[in-house]
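Final paragraph of the annual report: two paired records, presented back to back.
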Amino acid sequence: MNNEMLYQIALTLIPNIGPVQAKQLIEHFGNAESIFKAKKKDLSAVDGIGEIRAKQIKDFNQFKDAEDEITFTEKHHIQCLFLTNNDYPKRLLHCYDAPTILYYRGNANLNNSKIISIIGTRNNTDYGKQVTEDLITELIPYNVLVVSGLAYGIDAIAHKASIKNNVANVGVLAHGLDSIYPAQHKSLAKDILLNVPIVAHDAKVLLKELLTAGYTDLPEVHHDIAQGSFLLNPLRKSRALSDLIGIQVESPEFAISALWTLYEEQAKAMDGLPKIASVARTIDFPLIPVLARMEHRGITLDVNQLELMNTKITQDLTEVRAQMFEMTGYEFNIASPSQLAEVLFTKLQLPTTNIKRGKTGYSTGQSELDKLRGQHPIIESIEQYRELSKLQNTYVEALPKLVDKHGRIHTTFNQDVAATGRLSSTDPNLQNIPVRTELGRKIRDAFVPEKGNVFVNADYSQFELRLAAVLAGDEKMINDFNAGTDIHIKTAAEVYKVPLDNVTKAQRSAAKTVNFGVLYGMSVHGLAAATGMTFTEAKNFIDEYNVVRAKLVEYTKGVVKKAHEDGFVETLYGRRRPTPDVTSSNFVVRQAAERAAANMPIQGTEADLMKKAMVIIDEKIKGLGEQLLQVHDSILVECKKENAEKIAEILQDSMENIAPEIGVRLQVDVHMGSNWGEV
């Protein structure tokens, strides 16, 4: 507990020590603690104190009352502004009897250069109401802080008009913040608190608390310290408040001071980086209330369905395990890499050519199993066993343990994990539920809407490729997208030099692999492994591709060059990622950094546009539906059946028209269903 605050509050509890005497004592002794520790004779010598008041100070022993007051303020996020506090209204100090302590909730600047006090009769006329409202309206351009009481009549009108016009306002209570009088103005007090845009460290936590408390209209996030730190340096490992400020935060007062210091520092830094500032204020900060609502809302999980699935998986695991033991002639621990290696390379004598070897023997990782596919049926059994085990342990058994009393599961969306700016999902990770296998997709079937509702899912088609065409300035590719041409067939036709109608499925598949793979630095070996081509075939394909998609290839090289020269790469909208490792002397590290640099502008621009779309959609679907999840290039919404068509229209229109300035047609596919797997 903060000792000085304890003594400050205690000072206000001493009989016959009012604001005048308290101010004299502070001026003499410097702080509240020193007053209580001073000798009686020194206290009585202070002008206006005398022996009687000095004795009352020394005899004071009601510190428990002060402790209770501190507990109350901490619980209700109330600031105690002692008259020596920097945030204490300086104008009040000119009053000889200024309050010793102000108890304050909110984040308005009490030392705003322009403050106007509005008070009036409780029994207002229509004329008085109109004048007050007109006055507030006229004050909008001047960044004024309006101060009034919380009484009936003109006071309440002044606050309501300020809230309506987004004018900062403070409600003054003579009796403290432990009760609201009149009681009918409790909701008005809440509205005042929520009227001012907030500055916070991890504002999403605060907003979720407001949602839990029953607030539905969330305040604007003016600045988020943690997210601001990420935007200025996405490679920073920790964005905890103590790490950002450099010392341990030990009290609420210090935390508030630290927040304000960091806010000012970040705001100044962003003033010098206008693109970063724009990303913060138009994309990342506006998204925070959207994510708060999504996390608070959660998504319903059909636990019974997963229990049935768990029973089936357990049976399948038993069967697969028995098959493998029959193949080998003995039982072994399938999860043990060393035992599995012994089975594969000693017992079954599978070839070890090109198989990676570590300190404990040959590797049995997936990449090595890929090399052994077709050599023995046990390889497919191992892969099946691993898939079943992962699904069971990571999802089927784990997810039901995370549902709340309403049967809903709540993930956490992170804006500050992926350096590209992409959202990630944790506790649990709902973005990573497998969809490539039939069994994996069945897990999504267990995520269901509430009775009478449906899911609507909107998914961008070939989002990254379209953005890559824009960033590379590939007009031919942009025109193909705008004409609705299948870009993979077009690429295959140009690479293989055949008419569009003659492109085979295998040729399209190879073109698709390279179209996406080139964004991630796919090698000749990688293409050969992915498509079954020989090394020569793969090399010839990539050589020809580099001619057909020369602008895309040159763009990628240009991004890497920029990373070396500038030390960072950026998205179309100015989000940055530093690239220190592109100059590493370690070839592996340098190569990985160059691949990440080449990919960042595309994935980062994708993330920027997805976030912008989520903010717009959140506003447009109010009262019609609720955003639940964002996964890669898709947005999942829950709504009443009768609103589904309207929601589908909003999603498609908002997402496809999110960035008309980029010049490429964005295509969105929309699906409806009774569970997540269906959409």
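The closing record of the year follows.
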Amino acid sequence: MTLGKNKNKAESIKFAGNSHDIDEYLRAIFNNTGEPIFVKDEDFKFILVNDACCSFFGLPRQQIIGSTLAEKFPASEMEGFFAIDRQVLEQGQEILCEETVSPIGEQPKQVMTRKNRFTDANGNYFLVGVIHDITERKKIEEKLKRAASVFSHAHEGIMITDANAAITQVNDAFCRITGYTAEEVLGENAKVLQSGRHSSEFYTEMWNTLLKQGYWEGEIWNRRKCGEIYPEMLTISAVNNTDGFVQHYVSLCTDITVMKEHQNQLEHVAHYDQLTNLPNRVLLADRISHAMLQCNRQQHSLAVVFLDLDGFKHINDTYGHNVGDELLIAVSVRMKAALREGDSLARIGGDEFVAVLTDLALVADCQPVLERLLLAASEPVTIGSVVLNVSASIGVTYYPQDNVDADQLMRHADQAMYKAKESGKNRFHRFDTAQDDAIKVQRESLETIRRALDKNHFVLHYQPKVNMRTGSVIGVEALIRMQHPKRGLLNPIEFLPIIENNPMSIEMGEWVINTALSQMTQWQEMGLKLPVSTSVNIAAVQLQQPDFTQRLTKLLKAHPNIDPSYLELEVLETSALDDVHHVSTIMKACLALGVKFALDDFGTGYSSLTYLRRLPANLIKIDQSFVRDMLIDNDDLAIVEGVIALAKSFKREVIAEGVETIDHGTALLQLGCDLAQGYGIARPMPANEIPTWINNWQSDASWQK
């Protein structure tokens, strides 16, 4: 009986039994065996394979029988296969070996092959092989091997517990971190590691998170076997069984002691002065902010004290920085000792220190501390054989009396310190909040004017000037106004005093002159030739600029159609008080250009006669304060009369401001003053209203008699 119909040596294989049924039965068993089975001849050619073997090689039986399958595998592998086959056939011993089978174009497989020699009745050798596919088993073994390696060699401590937190397994890193051996902790509850630093609420929250989310992660303080408490980063994961219940917990821990120490070092460097070990500027700002919050809660005050050592630079220059550093250390120790418990002292740079005095029921409670600080700074310091002496200038401000933020408090204390230095050093000075408020208002006002200039929020209004006797309009005075976005149209009194002696006054003065010249050009194009006097009241800071004449020349050249004689610059009497000679020189240079001058507010200064004699102004303006009350005040009347007489004596024209009534005009005419301006004639008005007003204006009949 044969197992196959192979035309080769397979036909010679005979088995006991003659029944065809037995033959078919054996064939079925052979082909239904789950593991691949094959038979090879002495030339290593397959002569018999079962169905499982065909599946393994992925080939039909007719392609396998009679072939070595050498073309399906790499040559190096085939050499290995043939070597083992040859050994089995020659020696007749069973060989069990692991092999890698790499069919070309397919994924390699790991197999266990059992090979035996079979001899038939004719003495022919055959190789019988059984293949066990161990690919998946090998993968699992490799995973387990890697897992075991990771568990054993991991730098992180690994602890496995059962569902009740009893320790079942730990790795070497765990033992190294905790100081416990595996034998000492196996079976113990994980509580053996607790440090006592955490509350029961902490652990309750940890377990609630584990139950809800399946893991917990965070920093924790644990205790080593030796009793040392250490910080670690801990991750706990719950592992469930197939029924969804917790089977065990896996904990991974990393000792972060070194990291914490490094972190603490960095924080110390970031928040403390390296020389004196006092808080630095960063930590100081935080402490001031915290103290301010405490003040608000307790309804108390705090003091921010700025200290600067007097004479420290001289010591550094004379004895060197090393001695200077020793001095700073010694003084800082003394000043810190002079403070109360709860107060802070910081070094913010060089020889500058800031103290924060908290919990002051009264600001006066601060004074004894300030006196002790002055004493601590001024006491002699001996370094080697050298006795050094310095002192301190101290500025102090109080919160909430000085109701600003922490940064501003330090600035204010700094400002007060400079006042102490200016006052003679070795003393303290309190910051003046009222003065600071005034400075803030001044600064804000300057910023408002600056924005107005940048955005062209200024306009000129024009007030007519007339000859009352003849009824003619002799010109207009340009009067500046600010178009405030919220307050509306503002008069000069609300912004000009703010920029007095400020560079913006120069810019504004030039703007007025240029705008007036532009307006004169427009009127001239309408057929109206109208002299304009600029009432910006050319400020001393502008008039005394070395290049005033050059700048005026440039403005005039920008308006070539305007006769310079139509421009009249009004100079306040007090503007020239500082340097009459210089002002006179500038005015003469401008006169050479054709520009005229008027002395404004004449009679309000102290040197009117000097001005008349030395300043080349062709027009004198009687201040309205005298004109307004001349009808009821004999002194004012006498002043007006005197100014008119002086003008005639010096051969100057005279014009009166502040003519509010017909009676004012009549009185001035009787005194010999024909020129006037004021509300009784016309109020200042926009430029577009001037032509209509001129056409309609008539002098009072009584004035023309």
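Confidence is low (pLDDT under 50) at residues 1-18. This concludes the annual technical report; the extension proposal builds directly on these records.
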